[in-house]
Structures are given as structure tokens and as C-alpha cells.
Design goal:
The structure holds 2 protein chains of 2 kinds. Chain A is an alpha+beta fold. Chain A has 3 helices and 4 strands. Chain B starts with 7 loop residues before the first helix and ends with a helix. Classes of the chains: A alpha+beta, B mainly alpha.
Chain lengths: ~80, ~350
Amino acid sequence: MKNIKVLGTGCANCKAALKLIGDVAKAQGVEIALEKVEDMAAIVGYGVLSTPGVVVDGKVVHAGGVPSREKVLGWLA
Amino acid sequence: MSAKETSAPWLAGTALAIAAWWLAYGHLAALSAAAVRLSGVDPGTPLGSALDFFVFESPKVLLLLAIIVFFMGIVQTFVSPERTRAILSGRRLGIGNVLAAGLGVVTPFCSCSAIPLFIGFLQAGVPLGVTFSFLISAPMVNEVALTLLFGLLGWKVAGLYLALGLTVAVVSGLVIGHLGMEDSLEDWVRALQHSPASGGTSEAPRTWAERIRAGLAHDREIVGKVWPYILLGVGVGAGIHGYVPQNFMAAFMGKNVWWAVPAAVLIGVPMYSNAAGIIPVVQALLAKGAALGTVLAFMMSVIALSAPEMIILRKVLKPRLIAVFAGVVAAGILLVGYVFNAVL
């Protein structure tokens, strides 16, 4: 099971990214462990410069803005 | 996934859309005049004058914004925050501040990522003063503010705002840099300074199709968010145009009111509006006798010195540095206001 983390402190885009990933996973029938990381020190620890950031299995795959649906599909594949 | 996608249809579509835009923009004055005539309201009345303003200005500003934000979205595919950081890393005060303020205009920036960006810059060895120049310029000098100023007040005022905004950002960053206030960073941030972070980049668009799509996405994100503020702002502006007597504002915000500039800055701090809502109101105030310097100072204060942003920054800065930051930027804005009122 993939572990996906959304890094962000609660801006509108961060919530949208979290929801999008959850929705796409559900639609695809893929089970994932989805968490939201709000602790600033932890976010900074991943080295992203803009939020929301997305971490898949410990690796940063996206930073800044809501990712596109195709991108999310790519992470789940 | 989009490697196979060819860019030609996207480029052709963009050219077509720009032609349509040009046609609509060129005929806007005639269309809005016709609409006002159809409404049957006498243009000589206050209501007529308000309606005239609203019907012409709101589509004009929205059209301008749509095209400029689209092109900014494309420009931003070339300038990621990561690239900006690489350019600024290890720069000295001076040239570094100028570069940082300039890059602040074109680098994608959202105030909700101010902290990761701030720390990411310091980690990569961007000096504190240079980082501040970026942090001041990025929200204050942005394409939405510049487009609205251009659309409502002309290119001269837009140009002045750009030049003065950059100057305030450069000078404030230089002052903060020379004060050597690294000890006023919160301790956990100091511990991270000069400790290069691991990776953390997302792949950037490469083809023109992807860049154009990024431009459209930027339009959806920005224009999709600010259009209600613009309509509201133009509506309030229209009301002022129609119903507030000529020269009414001169008594409070005129050139000869010495306390108007500091009052404008103070009133601006707790206000947290985006430029989109505030500029149409500002335009109407100017038409009723407010002085340009006072009005520009008010705008800069609303956008650059916002209480919510201070609260966010408190997580990484000790109160002393926040006070210096606010004080230096406020002093710069005051100076801009007074100089303008004296010169123009």
C-alpha cells in the first residue's frame, strides 16, 4: 500500500490537493494511506519551497499548486 | 505522459484566442455605450454615471487580467521557486537584493508558502537581507496589482508602482541585511541555516502544450478567485463616481493634509484585501481629489503589511525582527507617499 503525504498548513490549495488524491484513489479502487502534514518543521524537512507538497513513499513528487488529475493517477499506478 | 502530445494545436488555439480577445477588447467601449443606452438611464444622472463606469470598467479589467495572468502562467513555467533560489544562493547584499526583488515579481508565490520558502532560501545560503527583499517584493509587486493599475489608472501609475515597489523591497532588504539580525530568527530556524535540504523538486513542464496548459491553469486559479473582488471593487468605485461630490476626498486625502499618508498606512495594516478589490476603489478616490502619493501608500500598506502575514512570520522570526521588518517597510512606504505628494 502506498503512503501519500500532503504537506501544507491549511491553505485552500492544500485542502484541494488532499481531497483530489483521496477522490482519485477511491475512484480507482486503490488503497492508500493518506496523511496531511501540517507541522512546519516537518514540511521544511522535506525541502519543498512551495506548498502543497506531495510525498509518495518518502519521496517528494510535487510542490506548489494543486496537482493535475493525470499526475495523481501516475502516482497511484 | 504528455511526451507524445504535440504543441502545434495548442499554439494555434492560443493564437486564435488572442485574436478573439483583441476583437472583444477593441469593441468594448462601443458595446458598453450601447448597453447603457439600452438600459434607458440618463447618462447625466449619478446613476447613469455609476452604471457607465461599471459596465465599461469591469469587463475591461477582467479581459486585461485574463490575458496577462495567462502569460504570467507561462512565464512562471520558466521561473520556479527552486530556480530562483539557485540564482540567489550565495549572492551578496546589493546585487542580491536587486535580483531578489526582480525575481519576486515573476516567481510563483503564495503567502501560504512564505515559511517553507523563507527557510528553504536561508538553508541554501541566500542571505537574510536578500531573502527579505524577495519576501517583500513577491506579494506587493504582482501581475494582478500591475494589471489593475494599468487598466484603471494608465501605464504611468503602473510603472511608478512597479519602480517604487521594487525600490522599497530592495532598500528594506538592504537595511535588514546590514543590521545583521540572524540572531532574531527563531532557534529552530537558525539550526537549519546552511544545511542544504534534500531534493524536493517537481518536474517542470517542457513542451509548449504543457506551458500553455499551465497558463490556463493560472488563469483558472487567479482570475477564478479574484473576479468577485473585482466586481465588488468596481461596484464600490462606480458608486463613488456617481454619488460622491467632486473634490470631496481632497479634505481627507488631499496633498495638503500632512497626516494623510501615515493615516493611510496605519489603516492599511489590518486590512487584508487583494489588490483586485482595492484598486478600483483607489481609482475612484483619486477622481474625487485624493492625492496619488497618499493613495499609493494606502495600497502598498494593504498589500505588503498585512497582520495575517505577520502572524505567519512569527513562527520563524522573533518579535524584534518582525518589528524591524514592519518598521522598515512602513518607513519606505511613508517616504513613497510623501515624495509623490511633493513631486506631483
